[in-house]
Design a protein that fits this description.
alpha+beta; two-stranded antiparallel ribbon; 20% strand
Length: 259
């Protein structure tokens, strides 16, 4: 599901509009029973953004990459040694992946970097390693290592829940953004640029996306229905809306209405 959005002005980027976006998100959904954690890509990883989330009484989990070079360097220094000398705190079973063969995930974490530098709200840094192999019994290799910074206290999530959280985060990209970009072709320039056309069209797209996502996830749970392509799903909804049936009062026959 996609619950909110904000157009990004051309002179900035997603990190640059995080402050007003998060303020609006908290105003609408900020009650403790609606959400208490923000999981964000490396593009949002700044001390100021992390502090804003922390001061709002929420938890953050930030992917750390080269845009935070010093924190990334310190994270690797501590956790690379752990990964060589210690068993992971948690790991998933091997599972089949359509594009990468068989994969599993492992977790190490440290509190050594708590309150590091100006990141006085930082409590933990995580290393999540993805291992891959071509067959069930093939040799394994490190596919990727990812670092995450968080203000979560140790014990708030079990190690297994951390791996579930990291995996669930990628559904944002693979499900929501991937579907809007690929199946819905959102970036192909079909936008209204006059007046408030951009936010209005974007809002209508999200309403349609959420309706179809709910239809697929909640109501079409059989294997056959879940294999239906997005184009087929859209056609079903379109037909239901555009071609409603009506009874002819003259002869009682039922026929499609003219769109």
């Amino acid at each position: 599901m996609c619950i909110d959005q904000m157009p990004i002005p051309a002179q900035t980027n997603d990190c640059g509009v995080f402050k007003p976006f998060f303020e609006g998100l908290c105003k609408t959904y900020g009650r403790a029973d609606l959400f208490d954690l923000a999981c964000m890509d490396a593009g949002f990883a700044s001390e100021a953004n992390a502090r804003q989330v922390d001061e709002a009484g929420k938890a953050y989990v930030l992917s750390i990459k080269s845009n935070q070079p010093e924190l990334q360097k310190e994270g690797w220094r501590v956790l690379a040694t752990q990964a060589k000398t210690q068993a992971p705190e948690a790991e998933t079973p091997w599972e089949s992946d359509s594009s990468r063969g068989w994969i599993k995930r492992q977790l190490w974490r440290t509190e050594e970097l708590a309150r590091w530098g100006t990141w006085t709200h930082l409590r933990q840094v995580w290393l999540v390693r993805v291992l891959a192999r071509k067959g069930k019994d093939g040799p394994e290799r490190v596919l990727e290592d990812r670092l995450y910074a968080t203000n979560l206290v140790r014990g708030r999530l079990k190690p297994e829940q951390i791996l579930d959280l990291v995996r669930a985060h990628w559904r944002i990209e693979n499900n929501c953004f991937g579907r809007l970009d690929i199946e819905w072709q959102e970036d192909h320039g079909r936008w209204v640029r006059r007046s408030n056309g951009l936010p209005v069209v974007s809002l209508l797209r999200l309403i349609a996306y959420n309706l179809l996502e709910m239809l697929r996830a909640v109501h079409l749970r059989s294997k056959a229905a879940r294999r239906a392509a997005w184009q087929q799903l859209r056609d079903w909804v379109r037909d239901a809306l555009v071609w409603p049936i009506h009874a002819d009062p003259q002869d009682g026959e039922v026929s499609p209405a003219t769109p």
